[in-house]
Amino acid sequence: MSVQVIRPAGAGHETLHVFLLALAIVLLAGVVVAWRAEPEQSVTIAADQFDARRDLSAAEQGIHTDLLVALDEIQLYQEEEQALPEPQRLAEEGFPPFIADASAANRGGHAWQLLQADTLAAYFGRSAAEDVAGSFLLRLDGDQASVWLNRAAQAEAPNDLRDQALADTGWRQVASQFDAGVTRQHRH
Fold it and tell me: Whole-model pTM?
């Protein structure tokens, strides 16, 4: 009778193979992530501008958003009627920030008026509470529009609606930047 001794399989070899496989998976994942990564795009805000997300108070952000939403309706009205609607008309139709409701009062109680100078037009909203929100200007230049903010106490309606004239009188343009910190792209 012969006795044959069979040694058990070593755990060291199996552990080494599992470790090498895990390392290969991690390295492969790292290469794929580095290869597919998009470069970070940074938009700089000029010194004479406000960043809509970082520099505006909550009340100012709300007014800014309301102005951009109302802009679509203003442009539609202008196409149909060949004239800009008065702020009173926009208020009657219920477009914030032109309506005088509790929300408007909480956001600074702006009094709106339509300004026209040369080829430019603007909706000027003077704040009744500068500590809550500054005065706003929605400037229209053909198909282009921009929002401006002046936090000075009792800001006056500008006579000249050009960029440099507005900047010289204390107005700063509100710039919107959309980056990965603001929006995420979900590809489905």
Answer: 0.70
